[in-house]
Design brief:
The chain starts with a strand and ends with a helix. Helix content is 48%, strand content 19%. Strand 1, helix 1 (15-29) and strand 2 (34-41) form a beta-alpha-beta unit. With 245 residues, it is an alpha/beta fold. Strands 3-2-1-4-7-5-8 form a seven-stranded mixed beta sheet, with helices on both faces. Strands 6-9 form a two-stranded parallel sheet. The protein is built from eight helices and nine strands. Helix 5 (130-147) packs parallel to helix 8 (212-244).
């Protein structure tokens, strides 16, 4: 089984069309049993009402409400609770073209522990503002400077993880906001997990809820925090592996 998590905050307008598009695609392209899980991060509009109606329209759709904001915290909770063999997530605006989903699943089924959508690989096709392009490339450069990592795009909202990898790494992630993705990938690579990448077709959502300046500041603070705690966390990962061996 594969879980496709859609984190949302105040998305009453876009949800119906996005869920229809996503479920239709998955029905036509995914042979495994799947569930679409709308994960509501304390919305204050009609997101809950709309989501519950969608659950009645599509038997593959479930809804969970989490009474606090933060995409990372929401993913942490639902991924760890998931019974699925593969846990994934994508942004509700479907900025990443869904054709990348099949390639992501192929990589997960053929040995990758984590798979990410990348807007920065040469084969990727992206449409976004110059400011977003500069910020994205600058941020990923900082990650490489701090941790000497090889993955190309930490923040693309399109990722998948094998269940056993999620159960090992996700409990150790401290960030509950946007840095969650970066922390997951740094822990994965530095602990020897294989990270697969899919070059994606991606279009910027002009109605994004991301506050860029605050997010950049928070991420830089988190980079320094993780650089200090990483040796201890990697030791805990090794200890967990030894216990389960």
């Amino acid at each position: 089984m594969v879980d496709v998590v859609i984190p949302v905050y105040n998305e009453e307008k876009i949800l119906p069309q996005s869920i229809k598009t996503l479920v239709t695609f998955l029905r036509e392209n995914v042979t495994k049993p799947f569930r679409v899980l709308i994960t509501d991060n304390a919305s204050i509009d009609r997101t809950e009402e709309v989501s519950r109606r969608l659950c009645t329209e599509y038997p593959e759709v479930d809804y969970v409400r989490i009474p606090r904001k933060g995409r990372g915290g929401a993913l942490k909770q639902v991924w760890l609770e998931s019974p699925a063999e593969y846990v994934t997530y994508m942004d509700v605006d479907l900025s990443t073209h869904l054709r990348a989903f099949n390639e992501m699943m192929d990589l997960l089924e053929n040995g990758s522990d984590v798979v990410i959508g990348s807007r920065l690989r040469p084969e990727a096709n992206t449409t976004r503002s110059f400011k977003r392009e500069v910020l994205s490339r600058g941020y990923n450069f900082l990650i490489r400077v701090f941790f000497r990592t090889r993955f190309t795009d930490a923040q693309c909202g399109f990722k998948g993880v094998r269940r056993e990898t999620a159960q090992l790494l996700v409990p150790l992630i401290e960030d509950h906001k946007w840095f969650f993705d970066t922390e997951l990938l740094v822990l994965a690579e530095k602990s020897g997990h294989h990270i697969g990448e899919v070059a994606v077709e991606w279009i910027e959502d002009l109605d994004t809820r991301v506050k860029l300046v605050q997010t950049v500041y928070d991420d830089i603070v988190a980079l320094f925090r993780l650089s200090g705690t990483l040796p201890t966390v990697l030791q805990r990962i090794d200890e967990s592996r030894a216990k389960s061996a």
